[in-house]
Every structure is written in structure tokens, then in C-alpha cells.
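Researcher: Quick test of sequence recovery. C-alpha cells follow.
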């Protein structure tokens, strides 16, 4: 029901239920009188794709910055970090969107923390296997784990800070 205070009138539609915890609806009233309306469910796929790309780029830039401090600078090491992050970010974002869509924001927060731990495990495993192979000097597993932990903490905190500045990006 919509209320138009200037006209002191209501518009009433059929009863609609949300189909997700974060639903989008488009209301068209073209050619209709003021007492009727039509709802069409819609979803902004373009904005979702743009925000996904932004999240991935931000994560990769932050993690590459941390990699530079840990002396993982060779072209092959950067390529490994890029590939691993793209894969983990795609998986993380697909799962989080699915969870948010079906279970809502509270489940999203719980699963976000849990899935970030899984991302840490996946990335540290991949980096332990591959990063040392392309180093001029031996790289300890401890250094790789510390890099992975620092990179993930920085990208997580950076993401939270950006989410406060640009809420629609996440």
C-alpha cells in the first residue's frame, strides 16, 4: 500500500512476498490510474557485477602490496597470487551471495568469517606449493603462512573500511 499525502489517497496492490532477504522490485504505473499499480521483480545484475569486480581488484591490489613487502615480487609469484585470488574471490563471492539471498544478512556475517578462514587455508596451501618454486632463495613455509595471514587480514580490514565508505559495493 502506498500513501500519497498530498492527495490523501492510497494505492493498494495485490499481496507480494519477498523471494530473498534482499529483494529488488520495479513498480510501473504507466497508463494506470492512481489506485492501481504493477510490481515486477528485478535485480541489478550490472551493479552486482561492477561491485564484484571492484571487490576482486581491491583484494588483489592489497594482497600484492603485502606480497611486495614479503619479497614475493617475481613475475611468476605475482601471477600465482593473481590466479589464486581470482579463484578464491569468485568462490567466496558466489557462496556469500547465495547465502545472503537465501538466509539473510545475519547468516551472511557468520558465513563470511567462516569462508574467509577457508580462503586462508586454500591460499596458504596453494602458496606453500607454488610460491617457493619461483624464488631465488629458499622460502620457509612459516614466511608463506605469515604472508597469507597478513594479506588476508589487510584485505579483510580494507574491505570493511571500504564497505563503510561505499556501502553498496558489498
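Model:
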Amino acid at each position: 500500500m502506498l500513501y500519497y499525502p498530498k492527495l490523501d489517497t492510497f494505492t493498494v496492490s495485490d499481496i507480494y512476498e519477498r523471494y530473498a532477504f534482499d529483494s529488488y522490485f520495479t513498480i510501473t504505473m504507466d497508463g494506470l490510474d492512481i489506485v492501481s499499480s504493477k510490481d515486477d521483480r528485478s535485480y541489478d545484475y550490472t551493479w552486482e557485477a561492477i561491485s564484484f569486480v571492484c571487490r576482486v581488484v581491491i583484494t588483489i591490489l592489497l594482497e600484492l602490496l603485502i606480497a611486495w613487502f614479503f619479497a614475493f615480487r617475481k613475475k611468476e609469484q605475482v601471477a600465482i597470487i593473481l590466479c589464486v585470488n581470482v579463484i578464491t574471490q569468485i568462490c567466496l563471492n558466489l557462496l556469500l551471495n547465495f547465502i545472503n539471498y537465501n538466509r539473510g544478512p545475519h547468516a551472511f556475517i557468520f558465513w563470511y568469517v567462516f569462508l574467509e578462514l577457508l580462503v586462508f587455508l586454500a591460499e596458504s596451501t596453494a602458496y606453500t606449493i607454488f610460491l617457493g618454486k619461483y624464488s631465488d632463495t629458499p622460502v620457509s613455509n612459516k614466511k608463506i603462512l605469515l604472508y597469507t595471514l597478513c594479506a588476508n587480514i589487510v584485505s579483510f580490514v580494507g574491505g570493511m573500511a571500504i564497505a563503510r565508505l561505499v556501502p553498496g559495493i558489498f
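Confidence is low (pLDDT under 50) at residues 35-40.
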